[in-house]
Amino acid sequence: MGISFFKKIFGGDSEERNSETEAGEEKLGRDEQPACCSQDKTDSSEEDCEAGIDLTNLEAFVEYVVKALVDLPEQVSLESVDKERITIIQVRCEKSDIGKIIGKSGKTISAIRTLVSSAAGRGGLRVSVDVLD
User: Fold this and answer.
1) CA-to-CA distance for 50 and 66, rounded, in angstroms?
2) Domains in the chain: how many in total?
């Protein structure tokens, strides 16, 4: 589940991209978007763009990372709550494990939130992560 999971969320690896560009495909610039994410999109192209990134994949990613950090992974549970324009993934765990998820000065949870929100942004979603006791 490790590396292939990240490839699925963030769009493959550099070897695949290099072989595609060598085969004659034009490499996108930093400011350009794939055709499926352009401004003049139809319903079918919008679905294609979001096909690789959905809430289930993001929840699985958060669960994988959190369970790897804590001492009691069997006590970890996730719940998704939809607010007005954002989905919040709520993580519940043992009180003794909360500090491991948050990390020193909140750096660990900040990194998890950054990864989740950037992956969700690629699919046109707004997602955040909260840790509950």
Assistant:
1) 25
2) 2
